[in-house]
Design a protein that fits this description.
Elements lengths: L27 E2 L35 E2 L7 E2 L10 E2 L25 E2 L7 E2 L8 E4 L40 H4 L31 H4 E2 L7 E2 L10 E3 L5 H17 L4 H12 L12 H8 L5 H11 L8 H31 L7 H14 L13 H29 L12 H4 L1 E2 L15 H10 L32 H4 L20 H11 L2 H13 L4 E6 L6 E3 L8 E5 L13 E5 L7 E6 L7 H9 L26 E6 L13 E6 L7 H10 L2 E6 L6 H12 L4 E5 L13 E5 L5 H18 L6 H10 L3 E2 L4 H14 L7 H8 L5 H12 L11 H23 L4 H12 L2 H42 L5 H17 L3 H17 L6 H14 L4 E5 L7 H15 L3 E9 L5 H9 L13 E9 L1 H7 L3 E7 L11 H15 L2 E7 L7 H16 L6 E6 L7 H26 L6 H4 L8 E3 L15 H16 L7 E2 H16 L3 H4 L3 H37 L8 H25 L3 H4 L3 H31 L2 H25 L6 H22 L8 H13 L4 H7 L15 E3 L16 H30 L6 H20 L3 E3 ...
Parallel strand pairs: 1-4, 11-25, 13-22, 16-18, 16-19, 19-20, 20-21, 24-26, 24-27, 27-28, 28-29
Antiparallel strand pairs: 2-3, 5-6, 7-10, 8-9, 12-13, 12-17, 14-15, 17-18, 23-25, 24-30, 25-26, 31-32, 33-34
Length: 1971
Amino acid sequence: MQVRQELQCSCRSGRSYSVPAGQTGAAVFLQVKQELQCPCRSDRSYSVPAGQAGATVSLQVRQELQCSCRSDRSYSVPAGQAGATVSLQVRQELQCSCRSDRSYSVRKVRQELQCPCRSGRSYSVPAGQTGAAVFLQVRQELQCPCRSGRSYSVRQVRQELQCPCRSGRSYSVRQVRQELQCPCRSGRSYSVRQVRQELQCPCRSSRSYSVRQELQCPCRSGRSYSVPAGQAGALLLQVRSGGENNSDQDQEELKKKLADVGIDPHVWLPKLREELNITRAQALQHVGFKDYQKLEHCCKQEWEKKALKKLFNIQERQNQSKQLQDERLEVFKKRQEEARLALTELQQMQENGRNRNDAIVKEKEQQLQSALQVPKEYWVRSGVPLKDLIESMHNQSERSIPLQNKKISGLLKRLGLQDYYPKKMTTPDILVIDKSSLEECQPSTEQELSFLFLQKLLMLDYRARDMFCTVKSHANQTLRSVPNVTGKMNVADFFSKSNTGKPVTTEGEPEHIHPMDIQMAIFHCADSFLWQYISTKLSFCQYALPCLVPNPFTSQIEFPSWSFVQLKKSWKCSGKSGQQSKTGKSKSHSLYEAELPTVSFIRFGRSSSSKSQILNALMNAQKHHTFFHRHCKGSSATGLLMDGVVEISWYFPGGKDDDVFDDCVAFTNLHGDARQHEKQLEFLFKAATINVVLLTDSDLNEKGNAILQELLNSPKPLICLCADREVISEEQHGTKVKIGAKSRNEADLVEDLVTTVKRLLGTSKHTSSIKTCTGIARKLGFLIDEDNEHCKEGKSLAEALLAPLRNEKLSVIKEKYLPLQGDLWHKWCKKNKELTHLQIKGNISIEQHKSNIEQDKNSLRKIQYSRAFPLNNLIKTFLMNLKSNSDATKMFFLKWMEMFLHDLTSDQLTVLDETQHIKWSEMQKLKQKGKNIESFRKELEGLSNERNASAFSLEHLLREIGQIYEALESLSNKNDLRFSLPEIAADLMISGYPVELMDGDASHVPLKWISAVLDKVIEKLGDKRVFVLSVLGIQSTGKSTLLNAMFGLQFAVSAGRCTRGAFMQLVKVKEDLSLQKSFDYVLVVDTERLRTLELGKSTLNHDSELATFVIGLGNLTLINIFGENPSDMQDVLQIAVQAFLRKKHVKLSPSCMFVHQNVGEITAGEKNMEGRRRLLEKLDDMTYTAAKQEVCEVTCFSDVIRFDVNTHIHYFAHLWEGNPPMAPPNPSYSENVQKLKWVLLSSVSQQNTLKISEFKTRIQDLWRALLAENFVFSFKNTPEIAAYRKLEEKYGEWTWKLRSHMLDIENKLNNRIENGKLESVERTYLESEMQKEYKAVTQEMECYFSEDRDREILIQWKIKIEQKLADVKQEIIGETKRKFDELVRLRKSCWDLDEKKSKYEDELLKRSKGLALRLKAKDLDEKRLEREFQALWIDWVYEVSSDMPPVKKTDVIIEKEQILIERLANESVNLRMERGSNQSLRSALDFSEYILMKKEPIIKKLNPFAARTTKEEANQLTIKLTQDIIHSITESIKEKERASVDYSPSFIHEIINNIVKEIQDFQSKEKRFVFNNDYETDLCLMLCDQAAQSFQKMHDAFQKANDPRTYLTSKKEGYFSIFRTFCRGATSTTVLADFVGNKLKEAIRQAVYKKTSKDIAGEMRADNPAFNSNRSNLENHILASLADEDNFDKFMKYIHFPKQHFEEFISQSVDRYCWSGENPRILQVFRENLDSFNSSVFCTISKSTKVVQDKNGDVPMWLDEFCSELKDDLQFARSDLKSVEYQDIKDINFLKEAMATVLENVVADLRKDFSMKSSTNKEASRTKTQEILFKQLCGCWEQCPFCSAMCTNTISGHDGDHSVTFHRPQGISGVKWHKTDNLITDICSSLVGSDCRLLVSEDNIIPFKNYREAGPRHAKWNITPDSSSQLYWKWFVCHFQTNLEEKYSMKFNGLGEIPDQWKTITKTAAIESLQ
């Protein structure tokens, strides 16, 4: 409807127009390009808001909205009216309306749209997408956005919708169905609702298409548009011409919402699109719980599920349970109706002659499948005729579905499994550790039954079937009680009908869930891998396995062949058979392929005898319920899932006389009446060797007779158990036998049955296997889980991969296809171990030998690489299969690989084992006869090698992948494969697959590979916390069985050696327990059995290495002992105790538990405690022995580790309840496992867990330590080192804050002293001033120690760091106190002189003023004024000179000489002074002439070994002492220079006293040598000479600054300026201001210098990389700088005098930072600080003026206030202003203005000075900054006694040993080989790991690794063996070889030959190695 009158043109032209108004409830108002132009053609544009019928539309003028492109233009936006939900803007509208080519988004305000539910509320609607035409809303799914609880629908009429293709046509939504043309051009039409994600053509033409590009416009205009799948209930048609911009916008908005809840948009956007077709954020509001459930399976982590719930605003499931149940019921009913209709239509099609290949039939079949929710792989096979399919489905639908489905659905719901059906439960769902592990395992609700059943089953507890949960509290009351009677009761009354009890049950619902229903419900819910895993546990528990299982919903029969594939069993044929030897024959077969006779048991009807019970008695004399029967606990007649199930089990003989059968026999058991299960019978008849039927005469109805007749006609033997007959009279010797079962003794019946079965087995040769049965099942149309597409694909991939290997000789496969892990890898491992056991070989040095080994290792890696690439087909295909397939296919592939490889190798390995045994037996016989057995020994060795070569499994393939990675990594190859390999292993590890940690064949850990894999695990999972559990035990003690039972793992289990090396596996911890215990995974490390004979002679070393490694890794170690007596494991316990002792030394928190396996039932507590007491005694003895070896004070085991004999020792029952192989596991064993698991998990806390990254680091550290054979000696606890390094940096920050704060206090106090405001500085004042900052620092430290992620490690240093900080505070305070005491003392000595200067100034000012007053009226010119003032000056100076005594100038040099001669009293003093030899001490390296050895010990090189004579060591100590004394005296001299005091002779005496004291203190500690008198003399001469020169300059400067005449002369210009001002009529105020300004200028200058020094130091710490960390970082920058400068002399200074070089480097760095460039940084800081002081002084002027005015004060008061305010900031003494304080000044405001003007001039002058380098004091600014930085970065200066490397500890006076990260070749510091001139190239860390020895004295030879015994200085150093070394110093030796040889007059020859490898190191590589 058009309303012309209603709308006026918005361009104000006076014209009117009409606009089609939207009808009531219209959903969309479309605006096209033409509508946006003004209809009056005025070139203006406007917008038309959508209106309702008859509604007046208000115009929006241009001014309403400002253009979002910021161009100041405006535009209008159409607003939706009541009932409109979306206003769509076409692409053109999104361009900026101001024509600026920018685009913007249109935001709609809340008021625009009225709520369609008529509630009067309003809401906002997100803007429609670009080019979107229609947004349809369905009544049921749209809730009112105003939250009023109302819902509404949008009716669309034909007129409402305009065609989005711009053709002008309109259409209605109802016409959409007919109008859409098929995109495949077939001419058919279809409904948009039929467009699904499958992309199949809806017109049945078998074509496919893309939904977006190919849909035709419904108005027949020939245009096309895109139709993405609609959001919940909505269909969105988008105009093709413009959907990109808003689509991108929608994508970004959706990404943001995903990111807001914490999930990765890149991962989840595709999932949302694929699963729910969500492409817009707006659709999220429509998502319900059902939609969420579709996505739930995509979640790999629990947190992702929570994030999705938050995203969809979905409440927890328990809050919606009733609603969900109702919804499911409705869905279920709907599906039933759909299934019924589909079946009806299929039946009509079948009657019309159609078959399953017809497209329309396929569609209906798909609808039926969808309605029944049957997965594609479980649907009826395609080969089955349509008639059979319909019959099967019809029967199920008509007969079973209505009632049976309801019961089964109820069962699943009762068990809590409804979300897992069908086949949705996976292995990770159950292999988790949850709170139930810490609780009693008894079900309290029915929903707990299934998971507790699984938990008990995984723990090998066959009593899992005994669990059931009653529905009612009185359900166990099976009969009514007899009512109470008061009188007597007779027998008739007691048994009367009225008193007969009846079962108490609930109508329509069983009393409890049948135990087998629990198992079978799990079967229907478990996926293939989980059921396969469960089947292994059922088989282990000697339970029968489901063989044929009818689907409860479809009645389709399933044959789970995949579950049998992994089953392997061993048995021993009895010797009673004539075909067997007397000893019997052992067999080991896969049950999947084993061809065995099969005995099939079935029954007709219901019998009084239990078929399953008879079968159990037949198979198992131990009365174990292999098959569940009616008399088992929990059995009832209400079972739902067992009817029609066929179970299978096997009898395995043990080779004993009481074996029931001589060989393995399979038994099948059909549950239920066989007459009702034709398909199962058909299968059994084909598979069975013997058929056994339990029946009665009454069961032989028509169907029974037919079945029995078929069996009688079959050639296969038949046994009929007649339940209604007692005796069968006729003899039965044929193959058809009858046996009476009525009233028979069970033993007799079973004996008859066994005899008959054995006889009939002998007559029939028919056998079958699961593999052949699979073929039978497939022909019968059964559902085979092996036919799953993923399974078939995985199998075909595995078969194709291994096909070439089947023609190869087994012993050469690994050598040919896995070349990297054979000899090459073993040689590399051997070489790698040699690096930590360096031995002198010939006339080469340790470093040369080390270099040769590195080259050999590198060469081996290159050979590995050349053999690996190009990859052979086996590895290439293996990797491709793991990388390019889906997760399901990949897991099937790996399972098939494991099985095929086992099949490939098992037979050959068995033959080899038998051959070895035969040869060994023959050798033993010959040995007893005393004959030569050498040939047999060699033959056995060859067989052993062949067996090792023939062992080939999946772990070898994964090991090869690791070696490929290590080769690529070692050669730094950029191959893409290098980065993808670790991800493969990480994925396997995360999925629960064991990953090899230690290669058992090479006995080596591939560190790079393991580190890379764990890095990928961290990348995928995050750096989760893990509890590391490791296990130790001798061979075949059941360790892996224990772990498998405890955590449901899958470590290999078999007799003899199983696991070779060590494997690690992750076990997930459920979220509830994770939050409680603060760890996310248990990481289990299973190890190779100790004392493994196959490893040969190296067993003891191997055991020691392995035991120490796993104990070091584990947060807790289980030590597994077979039996109660630990004597069999005594040597291993000794190793374990020693390892625990070593762990205690390196702070690894050891913990252990002992498990005694195979201990009988212990009923006597006394006996149990006795065993524990004996074990503890043995542990104590072993600990004492180990402690003596480790040299530590430990007397008992509890000193090493927290150990409680009551809780840390566990006794386990026998694993088997009876004799294997038919014995089930012992329930007591399972109870023991559960208890141990509870104890283990209860002991876990955050303190004894690790992050995965920490675990990775611990692996690296432990393995490197083990390679060195000394755990404590060589262990580097890397996390601890890293934490300590970080603590050092924080400590540096804290001390800098304290030091920086004290610098501020120093400046303040120094100003007060200079200003005369302070005469003393009390320590208490300094402490109070420091307290606030110190408190802030300690609080920050407390936070760091309590909140840092390494807080558990850091806590050990907390007390020491607190004490260090307190010491630093006291040290800073003490140093400041001493400094100010000296300053005050020196200032007091100058007070008289200052007073005189002040007096003279006053006099001069008065005379100047008087003269000026006399000359004021004469108006003299400048020259005349100068002459007058000069005359005054001369007279005044003469008077001053007359009044003063003559100045005495001291010659410090002469006075110094006199004091030295007097003090030293040495005849040689004058001679040595003249010779000047003392000057060389500053850089001397040889002090031998000053050293007198008390006793000459010899340190020699034997065979050969590095040596350093004691005199050489004494020389090094003397160098250090000399440098320390020089540094101390130099600092003292500088301190006096900074005090600006006059020289005193006491200064020289002080220097001599300090030198003497330092030498005496050193001699009191060092007893091995003394200094002669010349040392003290020369040192005093040198340092006093240095001091005298400085003191002379200081004295001259003091004289100049403090002689009144000199001082006053320097002030002449200033006084002349005042004089001139007076003469020219200036006021007293101006004069005063000028005078004060002159004083201020110098004060501000000095204050700027001081503040700038501190600021520059702070800036350099923050900005300069060399100074922004600790001392080690500074040292690296110094070394890089030295390399760049390439100056050998500077290197030598750094090596021998590091502290001096550090000071010089800091000084140079300060200069570069401050003065480089055209606009130096320091000048900028000068000016910034000048501005700061300018502001401060200006504020002080104003403040002082206000205070004086308030008090009506005068000039003296103003000056007092002014100086008082500035006392902390400037050196501005009030005493200096006394001469001008009595000026006749009344106007204080004028003084303020005059002072402001003067200050402005002063600042301008200073700014000019601070803008030029030449006008600043460079030395003053540098010195203070250098001192601040040096004190802050001054750490420990101790140098290595061997190579002179500096201790890297940044805390001066630190606790513990000195250490350095990288040592240097010793020749750098001039060390040579004994009795040669060969400089040593060996590095300390290599020598201590070698076999070199050190001869401390002729009778004291020690290994070099025991270097601490060489003396006190050596004992304070910690040098660890380390194969890694820094390239820097190797480059230095090569680069400066000639210089070093000339410097020390020695050569790098012989033992000191430089390795060739060193010569290839470039300077760039050397510098990079510093990082």
